[in-house]
TrEMBL record:
This is Uncharacterized protein. InterPro entries: DCL-like. It comes from Populus trichocarpa (Western balsam poplar).
């Protein structure tokens, strides 16, 4: 009788021992030094900028000899920004057409979507003359 009660209570006993083991471990293991409480504050913290913001992280990692001041570098960065400004609407259009529920696989695009794709996407294709040729018959969505 006592043996069956002990067997039934074994899982609870094991659970209580694990709980006491965790509690004893917390008491016996020395606590680690907290890095944020004993370290000196950084200049960004003194200015009131929290260190977790992306701007603060980029300020900390910024190189001292930055090439941002170089006129040629600045010109290329401006041109890169212009290119990205041109490309972004085109990529959004392509993603919208491909991932939307408007078209099923193999379905022909509407006339206005075909026109936009021909003007914006196929114009930048390396073989655009071969793709467009003397005119487009139809453009379809095809997913692999």
């Amino acid at each position: 009788m006592a043996a069956s009660a002990l067997i039934r209570g074994a899982p609870l006993l094991r659970l209580r021992l694990q709980h006491h083991h965790r509690f004893a471990t917390v008491l016996l293991v020395p606590l680690r030094r907290s890095w944020c409480s004993t370290a000196e504050s950084t200049p960004l913290e003194e200015d009131g900028v929290p260190l977790s913001t992306p701007a603060a992280l980029s300020l900390r990692k910024a190189p001292k000899n930055s090439s941002w001041d170089d006129q040629n570098y600045r010109q290329w960065k401006d041109e890169e920004a212009d290119i990205w400004r041109d490309i972004e609407p085109i990529t959004h259009l392509a993603k919208e057409i491909i991932h939307s529920d408007r078209y099923m696989d193999g379905e022909q695009l509407t006339d206005e979507d075909e026109k936009v794709v021909a003007e914006r996407l196929l114009a930048y294709h390396p073989n655009s003359d071969d793709k467009i040729g003397c005119g487009l018959d139809s453009i379809m969505v095809l997913t692999w």
